[in-house]
């Protein structure tokens, strides 16, 4: 009898006829979790100012050329508003150094054009900014040539038009200088109006 009791559950368990699982039995087996190797988070380091300091310095010096050459157009503005001269006092030492060099305008012009713009060893950033400065410097010669050709005199409507024109050229040059210098210090590319397209085709 004891042998019959022991053989009965074994028969039920291993009987080939009992192929259907019992509804009371649970076949939910714990799923094996596959652990992937953890990747260390990649940190992308971006420089706040990717432009090299040498390129920024060259660009700042380049925009000083047309600015220094445009100061002659601001004499009527300084005569009318003498207090504006205090704004330009910090640059007087640099202006004195610039004027102390014989033919400083021609030397700086060819130094930028031949030494930087046409030199492939410099970066595109420095060459483009230098070309913008050179182009602006060339355009600043046009009002002076028109004044000598038309000869408006020292009074009358022609003289007033000349004063307004020279003052406008000087203000435009100052804005270009501030915009170019600030952008160069920040490592950004300035695009001067009336100049950027012509400079881009030459670089």
TrEMBL record:
Q: How does it sit in the membrane?
A: Multi-pass membrane protein
Q: Sorted alphabetically, which keywords does the UniProt record give?
A: Chloroplast, Membrane, Plastid, Plastid inner membrane, Transmembrane, Transmembrane helix
Main localisation: plastid
Where is this chain's protein located in or outside the cell? Plastid, Chloroplast inner membrane; Plastid, Chloroplast membrane
Query: What Pfam family does this protein match (any one)?
Result: TIC20
Q: Which domain of life is it from?
A: Eukaryota
Kindly give the InterPro entries that the UniProt entry links to this protein: Tic20
- Keyword Chloroplast listed: yes
Membrane-crossing residues?
A: 97-116, 128-150, 162-182
Report the protein's function.
Involved in protein precursor import into chloroplasts.
The UniProt entry's sequence similarity note says:
Belongs to the Tic20 family.
For this entry, the protein name equals: Protein TIC 20
